Amino acid sequence: MVTIGQLTGMLLAVIIPVMTGIILFLHMNRELNVKGLLLTAGYGVAGYIWEAWIYVMAYGWVGAVIMQYRFFDDGFGSVLKQLIIAVVYALLTALGLVWAVYLSNMRERRMERGIPVGVGFGMAYSVWNYVLVYGAPLVIGFQMKFGVFGGSEETREKVLGLSTRNMYLFTLDNIIFILILLGTTLLMSKVHAEGRRGLMFMIPFISQFLIKFLNTWLPSVMPEVISVVLYHLLTGSAALWSLWIWLDFLKKKKVDLTPWKKEGSGT
Questions:
Q1: Cα-flanking dihedrals φ and ψ of residue 188, to 5°?
Q2: How buried is residue 165: exposed, middle or buried, by Cβ count under 10 Å (0-12/13-18/19+)?
């Protein structure tokens, strides 16, 4: 029988990240008071869709090539494999974000127009990786709970085999990802307005490379529990910093990378 923990985990994985994105967008829309922000967020959605579609193909091709060589099975080869996969992921993610920020500024180059891209990109990520993945099992889980499930035994076993721990971690990862995107697209919009196209690409590339690489490398060099805690401490800190500078920008209409420091304090 499906447990309450599993149902709760699936429900949170589906609802919480989406609600996070909606709340962030509504707050941003109210504070910025700029027309067309919903369309701009839509560019972020489109950027993620094509990035994810190409990444699936690129990941399959790169994985097929790597699997042909034993060199990548362990040691330095294993680390190099993780680096290659992280580079591919970061490259496509950065291109998707750059494309979306560029489109958002085609009619009017204004810093505020590129910021909603992060929310749209994050919302699309949530739907693609969590709503579509856990939506059907959630419905099936409730059917099983109330004794009205009429599907196959294979489907039942798949739902019962879902890890509650992973659901909670995935929900946390999703929220962290969305928050990091807030700071990422804020900085991208700033440097785009200044005409620094190369830096606009490097900001998302470096951040997403580190996220992907740490997620795969840390478990290979330390116990799982320690790697999970360390990974979430690092990414969670980056997420809180992104949220802080984003909220500070909405309030002051200027980018301050250290908003916790008092003006004129020199610290």
A1: -60, -45
A2: exposed
3-state secondary structure string, 91-134?
HHHHHHHHHHHHHHCCCCCCHHHHCHHHHHHHHHHHHHHHHHHH
Question: Is residue 186 classed exposed, middle or buried when 0-12, 13-18 and 19+ CB atoms within 10 A define those classes?
Answer: buried
User: What are 226-241's pLDDT values in tens digits?
Assistant: 999 999 999 999 999 9
Residue with tokens 């709503």: 131
Secondary structure of 130-161 in the HEC alphabet?
HHHHHHHHHHHHHHHHCCCCCCCHHHHHHHHC
Residue 242 CB: number of other CB atoms within 10 A?
23
Q: What is d(CA 129, CA 43) in angstroms, rounded to the nearest whole number?
A: 18
Please state at what angle helix 224-252 crosses helix 197-221, rounded to 10 degrees.
160
pTM: 0.88
CB 92 within 8 A of CB 51: yes
Q: 84-127 pLDDT, tens per residue?
A: 889 989 999 999 999 999 988 887 777 888 899 999 999 999 88
Enumerate residues 6+ apart whose C-beta is below 8 A from 9. Answer: 162, 164, 167, 168, 171
Residue 135, both tokens: 């939506």
- In the Cβ-directed half-sphere of 89, how many Cα atoms lie within 13 Å? 18
CA 164 to CA 223: how far, in whole Å?
Answer: 20
* Cα separation, 235 vs 258, whole angstroms: 18
